[in-house]
Each structure stands twice: as structure tokens, then as C-alpha cells.
Amino acid sequence: MKDLLLANPDYVTLLLHGLGVTARLFAISWVLAMVLASLLMAVRSAARPWAQRWVWLFVEYHRNVPGLVQIFVWYFGVPQLLPKVMQQWVNRHDGEFVLSCIALTLYAAAYMSEDLRSGLRSLPRGQAEAARSLGMNYRQSLLYILLPQALRASLPPLVNQTLALFKATSLAMTVGVADLMHATRQIENETYRTFEIFLVASACYLAISWLIMGAGAYASRRFSAARH
Amino acid sequence: MTSMLEFTNVHKSFGATKVINDITAEVKVGEVVVVCGPSGSGKSTLIRTVNRLEAIDSGTIRVNGNDVHAPGTDLNRLRTGIGFVFQQFNLFPHLSAMDNVMLAPMQVRGTSKSEARAMAQELLARVGLAEKAEHFPGELSGGQQQRVAIARTLAMQPPLILFDEPTSALDPEMVGEVLAVMKDLAQQGMTMVCVTHEMGFAREVADTVWFLDAGRVLERATPTAFFNTPQHPRAQKFVADIRG
Amino acid sequence: MLDILRDYGLILLIGQYPQGPLGGLAMTLILAAAALLLSFPLAVLVGIARTSPYRWVAWAAAAYANSIRGLPLLLLVFWAYFAVPMLTGGGVSATAMMLVALVVYESAYLGEIVRAGIAALPRGQQEAARTLGLGYGATLRKVILPQALYNMIPSMLNQFVVVVKNTSLAYVIGVDELTNAAYQVNGQLLTRPFEVYALLAITYFIVCFSLSRGVEQVERRITAARRSRPA
After folding, report:
1. What's the CATH superfamily of A5-227?
2. pTM for the model
3. In chain B, which end has fewer C-beta atoms inside a 10 angstrom radius, N or C?
């Protein structure tokens, strides 16, 4: 038993620290992405055509460029554009984490806004008509009738996106973020016990992935739009 | 008696098809009007123009003296005074029956939750669904859903209610329960305009029958007169056809 | 940016060829196509297994698919990097390792598409086939799969676009594809990272966007064909 990697407290600490970074990266990106996605959906559904076109471009860019490349653009590319002062500030304050977070947020928000939008479009027209016939204005019908149902309708794809975002956080290791994947590689480099450490990392990722899938299934059942 | 609803030279086309062709008509306070006619005659479109779910090309529509289609009209405020019951019920599936009825008074009129709840309970009892208050639309039959929809409309206490083929989407055995509720409303003095195929209801409850064909009101008569001695040839054909 | 394109465009397109193996965008597309083609038979097996009437078969396939889908592709790439040489006794190129990782990854996702396609067919199809006396295997081969796979062509083509994006991870194990080519170009220029990586992003954008539009055309043709075919 002494031989087990996990028995070594140093490595356990390293793994837990990595897990913490992964969790933070995921949580912050997810919250920001949901907020941004809702805003994008609102713009896409109701604003002027030129604003809608910008949102379309935003979505198409993030859907057609690999996540890894998006992170590279933010981490390697964007700092070149910033004034020296900001570059130094970013470097001193966890630059790789912040820039990866930004990249992942925008990446997830693009997909999520599309999911929300198709959820909104799937609602029968009679719902909006009924709300307006009762005298509700646009904001009230959106807030109380359309948006709650759109969220419920978009639940399955949103859960998938959440899962995808969680797995995408692993890409941040390529720019030096000390997340779970980074810790795994580090331990592997030091101990050469590749099979063991990869197994542990796989177990961690699987556990959380299954948690997300399970939470999604639960939410789907509870808030399903088709309450029959 | 004063006018509740007035159509004056109303025209409407969908593209090249003329759907409402110069209609001038009046509904008095407390009057129950049944609008009937062959399909495609423009009946549904006509009542949907009353609360501006459809626009009109020319003419005026006045509800309680207010011009519905004037650019400056406060449409939301106007709609609180016009009830609308849809063929497809259009209940909000994510809210219970009680919540469906309470929502508009609370959000639009600012009614307090307790007041709204009390009113909703009373209205649901009135349509015979007191015990279904906490149920969701998905758990109710078509007839029950339509009755909740009527209660939801009544919650805003409109002086005029429009019915767009309220029983056409129901299985035959549920039609009666909805018509019974509508009959009650009529007897309590509600001003109603109903597009419907239910001729029994028309005979029993309506004050006037409007016969619509190809966007025109071809005949206007009391139910007895209309069903026994229709004047216009097309009306005669219609009455003969529905008689079977 | 245009001068970078002019000076290094060829490297981004085909890598070090002919002074070395094929690389750049060409390698990206070859890798993606190979991964999709090789994973297809595996995916069909997984899809059939998941809709199998034998419960343990369906359960095993579901466990396999859900496990692959729960892991980041990056981890699968590292697994392949470590496991493939062990299984084959060494001497495997990084490209082959990447191919293994992509094939395993796609077998789960493509398998899910096949499963959905089979499940979406009206039950009457299978019932009709069985009442005519066709066995399980024949029903699958002659009735279910032809229809399911045809209906799923747009989804499968969409997966090709996904795989093209996934090949970018090959950079991590040193495969000479598009992202790696850009990395090398940046290593030479050093002072213009934004332009290099923006160019990289734009290249992927053009490729994937065009592919997606092409898929949409195919989808339209298939939906039209489905509608005109009698049930």
C-alpha cells in the first residue's frame, strides 16, 4: 500500500490543488458564460439587424475555431495588443488563468446562446399571444412566460454545453494553468508511473462528468417543459 | 343601450387574398353574438383584429369608444379590457391552474398575492374546477384546460370576451362542459362574441347571429330567424348543410 | 498579416513537405478524414450494441460510451501517447497515436449518433420486418441500418467538422498539423504572435465554416428526399 501514488501526501496535495484550479476555472467560466449567453440571446431575438449580425459573427467564430486555438489567441496573441503596463499587470496576476477564463467563457457563451435561442423558438406562438392578450407588455411576457419555458426547453443542450465546458478547462494546461491535467502530467514526469496517475485523473474527470450528467438528468425531469 | 364593440368599414387582406371585405357592425353592451360561416370566411381573423392580434388595412374598430388600431393607443391597457379565449387554450404549461389565473392580475394590475389567490379560487370554483387549482395543464383534460383558460380571462374582469372556436379542439364529450360555462357567463350579462360551429349554443344563448362568407357579413338576425328562415342564398345553403 | 501568409503560407498548408512528412492544413484534413472513416465501423457497432435487446450488451456499450464522453479529449490523447507504444512494442509515430485517440473518441460520439438514428425510426419498421419473418440480423442489415444511416448523414458530416477542430490537440504530442505549424511560425517570427494566431483562427474558421455550409446543403437535399419518399 505504501507503494501507491495516492499514499504520498505531496502528490495528493498537488492533485487536490489542480482539482481546485479546474473547479475555479469551470465555475467562473460557466457563470459568466450563462449571463453572457442570456444577453446575446436577448440581443439576437429583439435588437436591430446590425446588432444581430455582430452576435451572429461572434457565435460563428467561436463555433468554428477550435477551443485550443481560441485559448492561444487570448494567451499568446492578445497581450501583444495591450499597452506594456497592462501586460505587466496581467503577468503578475495569474495571466494564464485570467486569459484562459476569458477564452473559455466566450467559447461556452457562444454555444449556450444558440441553445437558448432555439429553445425560445421552439415555443408555440400561442404562448406569446396569450400573454399579450392578457395585457402583459413585452418585458413581462418575456420574463414570466417565454424565458422560463425557453430555459426548460433548452435544458438538455445546456447540460451538454456545461459538460463540454468542464472538459475544455483541461486545455488551459497547454498555456501553463496549474489545473488537474497539468498536475497529472507533472506527477507523471516525476514518477514515470503513468498508468496509475492517468487512472486517478480519469477517475476524477469521470466522477465530475457523471455528476454533471446526473444533475442535468434530474433538472430535466423536474423542470421538463412537457409536464405530462 | 351603448355600444361595446364597433366595426366601421374594416378591410383586411393577406397578400392578394381579401379576408375582411368592408365590414360594418356593432355589438351592444350585454349582447351575445355568434359569428358563423363556412371555413375560410374570415371569422377567426375578424375577432383577432378586435384585440389587435391581427392588424387591419383600413377602417376603424372601437372597443368601449377606444380606437383599437390607432397608433397612439395603449395596447396593453386596452387588452386588459378585452378577454380572449383561444381554440388551443394556450395555458402556460409551467404554471399551475391557480398560477395561470393569478398571473395577469398580479403582474399587470399589481393585485396583491392574497387578493389574487382568493379571486382565482372563486373563479376556478365558478368554472367547476376548484379542486384542480394546484394541477398543471399537462394533468388536465382538454375541457378542463379550456375552462381554466376562461377563468384566467375572467380574472382580468373584462367587459367584453371574445371566443375563437373555443370547443373546436375538444373531444365531443368535453364540449358540453365548456359551453355550460359560456352559457353561465351569457346569463350573467357578459358581452360576448363567439366564433363557433356549435349551433345548439347559438340557438340557446345568442342574441344575434352574424353569418360571414368571403369576408362579408351577409346576414344578421336572431338565432330563430336565422336558423328557420335564412334570407341570403348562401346563408340558406349553410343552414341546410349544417342541418345535415 | 498578409506578408506572413505570403512567406509562411506554404508551411501552414502542407508543413515541411517535401523535405519532410506532410503537415499543416493538409495533415489536419487527412487526420480528420482518416479518424472519421476508421471510427465509423466501430461507431456502428457501438450504436447497434446500445439498442440491443440483450440488456448486458446495451449496458456495456452505454458504459463504454458514457466513459469516453466523460473524459477530456486531451486526456485521451495522453492515454494514447502512453498506451499505444506499450501495446505495439514501440516505434509508433505521434500521428498514429493521435489517430487512435480520435478514433476512440469518435466511436463514442458517432456511436451516439447511430444510436439516436436507430431509435428515431418508427417502431413499425421493425415490427413489419419481423412479421415478415426476417431475423434480428437481417432486419438490422436490410431495414433498420440503411434508413437510420441515411437519415444520420447530416449529423455525421457535422461530426467531421468537430473532428477537424479536435485535430488541433495533436499539437500537444508534436504532430505536425496546422496548429503546430502556426506554433513553429510564431517561433520564427517571435514578435507578432497576435497576427500568427489570428491567422490560424481565421484559417480554421474558413475551413470549418465552409464545411458546415456544405453540410447544410446536403441536409436540405436529404430532408427533401425524405419528404418525397412514401412512408
Report:
1. MetI-like (1.10.3720.10)
2. 0.74
3. C
